[in-house]
Amino acid sequence: MKNKLNRIKTPKDSETIVTEVVCPNDTNPMGILQGGKLVQWMDIASAVCAQNHAEHICVTASIDNVLFKTPAKIGDIVTIKAKMTRTFNSSMEIFVQAWAKKVVSQKAYLINEAYFTFVAIDDNGNPANEIIAIKPKTIDEKKQFDEAAKRKTARLKK
Ligand SMILES: CC(C)(COP(=O)(O)OP(=O)(O)OC[C@H]1O[C@@H](n2cnc3c(N)ncnc32)[C@H](O)[C@@H]1OP(=O)(O)O)[C@@H](O)C(=O)NCCC(=O)NCCS
Question: pTM above the 0.85 mark?
């Protein structure tokens, strides 16, 4: 699975976890976390994941299947996990999930998940010729890896 760079990493190597607290400036008048703010936090977590994997500056090419499942409210602790599913030539797909936790009950629930695609950029500002390959290890990582190719085809068709 190595490519001509002769380097390989696992999804765990670049997994990125970010924690935020929902503050009044992040919310709408009902005290609910704004969707755009959450997507910004998810974008930053996935950019860190992409750049740590690729060792290049990376840009967001697309975000698909953004699904706001449940609202987060003022004071909730939001945890965002970004994990690489697969690398292609210059692009990478990253699965991002966000949970909100109530401080007093310590109950956490999934509030959002989405697939982000990042493209690694070379020194001339073009998509990089090739990036470090990835080798999935766990059953879940292998499933995500296998399905990523189908998702890429579907997304480019759109
Ligand atoms: C993303 C971007 C670099 C692609 O450049 P491009 O010249 O269209 O590149 P190419 O057509 O050669 O494709 C390069 C890679 O991007 C992927 N790509 C291009 N458009 C895509 C899209 N809409 N969704 C997902 N992947 C995409 C291609 O599949 C290809 O991947 P591969 O090399 O792994 O096969 C370019 O469109 C861009 O700079 N967009 C703006 C990015 C931005 O401003 N983001 C927000 C701030 S970070």
Answer: yes
